[in-house]
Amino acid sequence: MTVRKNARRIAVTGVALLAVLATAACGGSDSGSSDGADWTQTGPITYVQGKDTSGYVQPAIDEWNKLYPDQKVTFAELSDSADEQRAAMIENATTNGAKGYDVLSVDVVWTAEFAGNQYIQELPKDQFPTDGYLKPAVDSGTYFDKLYAFPATSDGAMMYYRTDLLEQAGIAEPPKTWDEVVAACDAVKKLPGQASINCWGGQFQKYEGLTCNIAEFINSAGGTFITADGKPDVNSDAAMSGVNQMVDWFDDGTIPKAAQTWQEEESRNAFQSGNLVFLRNWPYVYTLANKDDGSSEVNGKFAVAQLPGKDGVGVSTLGGHNMGVTTTAKNLGTAKEFIKWWNSAENQKAHTIVSSQAPTIEGLYSDEELVKQFPYMPVLRASLANAEPRPKAVEYGDVTLAIQDATYNAIQGNSTPKAVFDRLQTDLEGLLK
Length: 433
Known about the structure:
Elements lengths: L2 H11 L1 H12 L18 E5 L7 H11 L5 E5 L4 H13 L8 E5 L3 H6 L18 H6 L1 E2 L2 E2 L1 E8 L1 E5 H6 L9 H12 L8 E4 L6 H12 L17 H16 L11 H9 L3 E6 L3 H5 L12 E4 L12 E8 L6 H11 L2 H11 L12 H6 L3 H9 L10 H16 L5 H15 L2
Parallel strand pairs: 1-2, 1-3, 8-9
Antiparallel strand pairs: 3-11, 4-5, 6-11, 7-9, 7-10
């Protein structure tokens, strides 16, 4: 099914709903938010996101523009670099909206920064209902119990594992604990020709992926970066249990030393070429590793499960993007209805089919068509159910760099994990004041 056909199908099936939404937007019944913002004003807006690698965005916007020519949406496509996207959005905010941005696709880790610095404005909850949307995704757009960004796409990590090798080793179920991972790898290494296969892969280069991976080790051990009342807790006994597990796996070879240079693609290629038993990665790997064009050595030989943890199933880091409205936007009524339309069940399903990005509407994870095309959907849903966001911090850029520095020093053995994370605790206390 082509992108344009998907978009056309969405437009047809959603016309009745859109007519209702448009009536509400153009009428005078909607009240403004508590800060006096007028959420009834309609007119042209600009939607901003990173590079559209799916080819879905512009055709879908074209359908909106056909239906509402007096509320035209212009697509401002940024680079594929998250850092460059963030910089462009901040420049718009700090130049009083000079770039003309209205609706932003906001990475889930930017919510606190963008809300705290008033780059995006609070969304009135009564006009942006989130019933039926994944709770962790809704929480990711929330700052101090106020909704600032509407859940658009989600993402959760999964454990890819070699079904053929585990079966040969007599292991019937994928491991749920870290100890079971090691035991499974030991059994696989005893198989003929598998003595040199590596056990566990992930993303351990010093970049955002390392923050995600260490967060999963810490959270899966019962620890946390920041407590519910906003205080750092990275050197607690529970947190250090997770940190030590990662470090120990590097020390004993469960994770190969080469993985200290891996990002998503390097780790995918290691698994796809048959050099790993287990891989921690995002859902996009599934389709690529299952290709039958000769590019994958594990086609038909793997499955997915939730991440393992210390005493049972582990905790994924939450990924994804939400949609926020800039504080300089004028036509808030159009911005509101465009966001709601874009994230309707019909549109999210079509977007998922084209791009493989995880939806935020809970019911879509049991949609027969989607599950048939993406068999991992039930596992991903379970992963997202208990996923944890990265620290909500206005100075998130500095926070994640501090976490990466500490973690990388620990896995490289430059200092003891406890000493490194004691320093990180002090650094975070300063950053989060």
